[in-house]
Amino acid sequence: MLQSSTDTREKATSDSHTGISLLAMAGKILACSLLNRLLKHLEQGHLPKGQCGFRAGRGTIDIVFSARQLQEKSMEQHQDLHMAFVDLTKAFDTVSRAELWNIISKFGCPDRFVKIVTQFHDGMMARVLDDGNASNLFPVTNGVKQDCVLAPMLFSLTFSAMLIDAFSEASPDIPIRYRCDGKLFNPRRLKAVTKVEDTVIRDLLFADDYTLNASTEQEMHLEMYRFSTACENFGLTISTKKTEVMRHEKKLHQFHLRCLRCILKIRWQDKIPDTEVLERAQLPSIITTMRKAQTRWAGHDVRMSDSSIPKQLLYGELSQGARKVGGQRKCFKDSLKAYLEDFNIDITTWENAASDRPAWRSMIHKGTLDSEDQRSNGAKDKRWARKTLAENPTNSPPTLWCQTCGRGFYSRIGLISHLRTHR
What are all long-range contacts of 301-305, with beta carbons under 8 Å and residues at least 24 apart? Predict the structure, then answer.
């Protein structure tokens, strides 16, 4: 069945239609059985380590973190980084089935298993629903079944084979050196000769989306050419759509409070401070929530295997390039160190504590409550001091004077701002 988009403006375009497979209960049981056998076979390492979508114990957030770490370290060590975010058009619906059967066979699946999967997809029919009316049935000969538990893993196998075909020859990549034996906040540990390991980062996979990384524009052109050629060979089409994610902590804090005021029906005329709004909602500030989430994620990263990309990037650095002399740009590790100190967690032993997941979550929860209390009390004290000064202005004379007009000021910043009016 092909279901159209709910947006009436996009119903005329074919890209707004999504295929949905309506499987009988027996078909769902068969698909789950095939998936379980396929997962046992794939534990032998047939999928690339950069693929974190559709896999147990992993998620696309792992790759989002890896991409941010790669950007941070490239800026810190003054190395050029080119990233191409590739989106495939109708990826699940355009997979060549003939190629797919060959792929799972070459990956070592038994002929009987391949035959069952083939028969599970043969004879597939579809119809289009439009305003309650159904079209005539027509055959579907390409793609995997949407809404089937077996479809994501079959697509991952196709994607893995396509990457092997695209980059079978030596290809440019980003060299990384890392050391995962603890002491994250000591950068000198990466200067050792024997205990440091090397790896390379070329691609990051967000489920059915893809990211290519290169050091130069020429290398990126070469990688994109190889990738696009492989896509054509496997019946896939590259879309030109790109995605960009931005974060600004201050604006996010304002948006969070604005939403809470709307939910609690608090108007700005009521003159209710932000601290009281959070107390009424029984919620911490968005800044504390973000710090808690990032600290919990750091513990999750520590518990990963040393072969995982997120851990290698967190504990490593680029093999080439050097940091600038003087102050450094603040990165994730700097923020994490400040959060640990704010939560009263020892930065020298936090990795041992993070290895115990329940204890780590409990420790962070307690630190979050204490940090939020300190932040809230500090905001209340500042508001009280500001209101007290407004109600009881000082009678002492100004200490700073404008040499042009003779106006007096109590602070240097006020005088400097005033001098701009005489320019």
Answer: 301/65, 302/351, 302/354, 302/355, 303/354, 303/355, 303/357
Is 256 part of any domain?
A: yes
Structural domain includes residue 262: yes
What's this model's pTM, rounded to 2 decimal places? 0.63
The structural domain count of the chain equals 1
Alpha-carbon gap, residue 10 to 15, rounded angstroms:
8
HEC readout, 372-404: HHHHHHHHHHHHHHHHHHHHCCCCCCCCEECCC
Tens-digit pLDDT profile for residues 115-145: 888 888 888 887 777 777 888 888 887 888 8
Residue 374 inside a domain? The answer is no
Q: Which of residues 92 and 274 earns the better pLDDT score?
A: 274
Q: Which residues pair with 88 in a beta bridge?
A: 238
Closest CA to 91 of 206, 249, 12, 3: 206
Q: Is 274 within the bounds of a domain?
A: yes
| Average pLDDT of the segment spanning 311-317 | 87
Buried residues in 283-293 as b, exposed as e (16+ CB within 10 A): ebbbbbbbbbe
The pLDDT confidence band at residue 242, using thresholds 50, 70 and 90, is low
